[in-house]
From TrEMBL:
Its cofactor is pyridoxal 5'-phosphate. Residues 3-357 form the Aminotransferase class V domain. Belongs to the class-V pyridoxal-phosphate-dependent aminotransferase family. NifS/IscS subfamily. This is Cysteine desulfurase. It holds the Pfam family Aminotran_5. GO terms for molecular function: cysteine desulfurase activity; iron-sulfur cluster binding; metal ion binding. Keywords: Iron, Iron-sulfur, Metal-binding, Pyridoxal phosphate, Transferase. It comes from the Bacteria. It comes from Corynebacterium sanguinis. It catalyses: (sulfur carrier)-H + L-cysteine = (sulfur carrier)-SH + L-alanine. InterPro entries: Aminotrans_V_dom, Cysteine_dSase, PyrdxlP-dep_Trfase, PyrdxlP-dep_Trfase_major, PyrdxlP-dep_Trfase_small.
Length: 374
């Protein structure tokens, strides 16, 4: 089987599985007795390791239940912490941010302003950041196309207006260097299962000030931002996975970029009217194609039948006959957007996997176009 959906989730690293198993017997890190203190020390070490890997202070590391939850806590919490009703965000955010902004508009009177995006899927006008807002959100790299966003510029623009900026870095952490202090955003979301840690573990980096207001109520764990007993084993597995991902980041980036380039060359040669959705700046692990006239779900099923696992890249569009919001924001016509395919690479991807896609893609697209014409 050739797995090309690493952007959705990537297999757990062996070091993370080992740590997860080793620490699975840990008890409540909030306990005041010996086993609690032991668990608390293990958790503190994991927090320190993550802080070090991401250029943050340990107190700024908040363990959450997912990247989605980290995004929710930050965007909702920063909005509630400020009297301003404006929110500025890009329209290509993952639903974890996009739907949060939309729901704040419906339930809490937020006035959302969307940043324009060019045809390459990159935010190209940050003007909306010049007026103060309760919170602004800009993802670091888009999960569907891999397009890298102008986060450093957004940090500077938001800072001059006094607006807290949240960055969804779920696709970037473990793939590119991240230094929370140097970059200077207010909050940052990451997700362990994107870099070989366990699923169900997110990281929120949150400065002491301005800090999100608490949106969940409970026992006050994780600075009150994410109350609930922390899963110590998953926290350690996350720290270990992140350390390994950071250590091999550069060599892996180069390896994946070369495989991705080979993949792109092969696919475009096999299907000459295919379009590579975005070129630069883009994550080295992503190749996102449009096959005009093809049916996206048929593409996925036909590839699956040939032992190739990939996705359209858009969770909410899968199985639903609706163009992805990201492609709509980029101005891609509906008929082209219907034939989207994301092939995302990771550390288990081999040259053999790439050859397999290149061998099968022309036939798969031809058949998916028949399905698209029905
Ligand atoms: N943000 C981005 C950019 C993502 O790609 C994803 C996952 O696909 C998420 C947020 C949500 O992360 P999680 O699956 O941990 O909730």
């Amino acid at each position: 089987m050739a797995y090309f959906d690493h952007a959705a989730t990537t297999p757990m690293r062996q070091c993370a599985i080992d740590a997860w198993v080793e620490y699975s017997a840990q008890l409540n890190p909030g306990g005041q007795y010996r086993s609690g203190r032991e668990a608390s020390a293990v958790l503190a070490q994991a927090r320190e390791d993550i802080a070090e890997a991401l250029g943050a202070d340990p107190v700024e590391v908040v363990f959450t239940g997912s990247g989605t939850e980290a995004n929710n806590i930050a965007v909702r919490g920063l909005f509630r912490a400020c009297a301003n009703e404006r929110i500025v965000a890009s329209p290509i955010e993952h639903p974890a941010v996009l739907e949060t902004v939309k729901s704040l508009a419906v339930t809490e009177g937020a006035k959302a302003q969307w940043l324009p995006v060019n045809t390459a899927g990159v935010v190209n006008d940050l003007g909306a950041l010049d007026a103060p807002a309760a919170v602004a959100a800009l993802m670091w790299a888009n999960n569907e196309t891999g397009a890298i966003q102008p986060v450093a510029q957004a940090v500077a623009r938001a800072a001059s207006a006094g607006t807290p900026l949240h960055v969804d870095a779920v696709q970037v952490v473990g793939k590119q260097p991240v230094d929370f202090h140097e970059l200077g955003m207010t909050t940052l979301a990451a997700s362990a299962h994107k870099f070989g840690g366990p699923r169900g573990m997110g990281i929120l980096l949150a400065r002491r000030s301005p800090a999100p207001a608490a949106t969940l109520t409970g026992g006050g764990q994780e600075r009150g931002l994410r109350p609930g007993t922390v899963d110590v084993a998953s926290a350690v597995a996350t720290a270990v996975a992140l350390r390994e991902a950071v250590a091999e980041m550069e060599s892996e980036r180069v390896r994946e970029a070369s495989l991705r380039d080979e993949l792109v060359r092969g696919v475009l040669a096999a299907v000459p009217d295919a379009r590579l959705t975005t070129t630069s700046p883009v994550l080295d692990s992503h190749a996102h194609f449009l096959f005009p006239g093809a049916n996206g779900d048929a593409l996925i099923m036909l590839l699956d039948a040939r032992g190739i696992e990939a996705s359209t890249g858009s969770a909410c569009a899968a199985g639903v006959n609706r163009a992805s919001h990201v492609l709509v924001a980029m101005g891609v016509p509906q008929v082209d957007a219907a034939g989207a395919l994301r092939l995302s690479l990771g550390r288990t991807t081999t040259a053999h996997d790439v050859e397999k896609v290149v061998r099968e893609i022309a036939d798969v697209v031809e058949r998916a176009r028949v399905a698209g014409a029905l």
